[in-house]
Automatic annotation (TrEMBL):
InterPro entries: SGNH (IPR043968), SGNH_hydro_sf (IPR036514). Residues 54-272 form the SGNH domain. Gene3D superfamilies: SGNH hydrolase. This is Unannotated protein. The chain crosses the membrane at residues 12-32.
Length: 315
């Protein structure tokens, strides 16, 4: 796990003594704590049901984005063979279309992500281009909570809700879609779910659901302008209906103890919905290029090294 530089700021009051800040280059700062009790919710059983799928070679799904995407992919990979799907996990901490500088997380300043998504947006786009050439996906899933954070641009802090930053986010996501669809893959933009960083009451800027709603509107506008190259899956509403945070579905723990990331069971719970959507938009490409492509297990079934760290509480 790569640790971020933390710079305390007078902007927020200090947290209670004894709380351990974990400065990590994931999409959020997390602490060792126990989640506040939350309600369970029910979603359609289709989310976890094995879906019917066409024959032929497996549908290739490339997952990109930040650490939220990477943890989702862990559960998707474990359910992939049942749906004749191969899931390639290329999510990396902090890697989103908009993050190029410091972010404000859990009351501290976190330095921008490292390779493969820094030091510039061009670096990230080049990394995605290489993944497209290597894996030749039929579908690309993009999920990033990093858009929600306060970000430092030109020496000042900005966030979703400000017209100028909204425009910047939209332009960045349009570039992302253009890049990720450049080889013919369809891009599915996933709306982030609500979060509640452990040890808090969900009142941090990065837990602000108004920002998620703005992000969702931007994602939909970007998809609408993509000429069919991208679509949006209301993933956030699926896992957190009405954007009310919950840690479990059907009695299954779907969120890690940090209140942000996904357990393996969480990815499994929503795999049916994601795979059905992926087949719907990716089948034409899958059938147009039926020749099998060998994807080494080291690439197609990668679990991030940091996934088992105790501070996340994903195990």
């Amino acid at each position: 796990m790569v640790f971020a530089k933390r710079i305390r700021s007078p902007r927020l009051a200090p947290l209670a003594a004894g709380v351990l800040l974990i400065g990590v280059l994931v999409i959020s700062m997390v602490i060792v704590d126990v989640l506040q009790p939350t309600q369970n919710v029910s979603i359609s059983s289709s989310s976890s049901t094995t879906i019917a799928h066409p024959s032929g070679r497996p549908l290739r799904i490339l997952v990109v984005g930040d650490s939220m995407a990477a943890t989702l992919a862990v559960g998707l990979q474990s359910s992939a063979s049942q749906a004749n799907v191969v899931v390639i996990n290329e999510g990396h901490p902090g890697c989103s279309a908009t993050v190029t500088s410091d972010i404000w997380s859990y009351g501290v300043v976190v330095t921008p992500p490292q390779a493969p998504c820094s030091p510039s947006q061009a670096t990230l786009l080049n990394s995605w281009h290489n993944n497209l050439q290597k894996f030749k996906p039929d579908v690309v899933l993009y999920l990033a909570r990093s858009e929600i954070f306060d970000q430092r641009r030109n020496g000042e802090w900005h966030f979703l809700g400000e017209p100028a930053f909204n425009a910047y986010a939209a332009a960045s996501l349009k570039k992302a879609v253009a890049s990720l669809s450049s080889s013919g893959a369809h891009v599915i933009l996933l709306e982030p779910p609500a979060t509640q960083v452990a040890g808090t009451s969900g009142n941090l800027p990065e837990d602000n659901t108004d920002r998620i709603r703005i992000d969702d509107k931007i994602l939909k506008a970007v998809a609408a302008s993509s000429k069919g190259k991208a679509s949006v899956l209301s993933f956030g509403s699926l896992l957190t209906p009405h954007l009310i945070y919950t840690s479990s579905i059907h009695g299954v723990k779907v969120r890690c103890s940090d209140g942000v990331h996904f357990t393996k069971a969480g990815g499994q719970e929503v795999a049916g919905v994601i795979f059905a959507k992926s087949w719907a938009v990716g089948q034409v490409r899958q059938q147009a290029s039926p020749a099998p492509l060998f994807i080494p297990p080291a690439f197609s079934s990668t679990t991030p090294e940091w996934y088992s760290q105790s501070e996340l509480g994903c195990q």
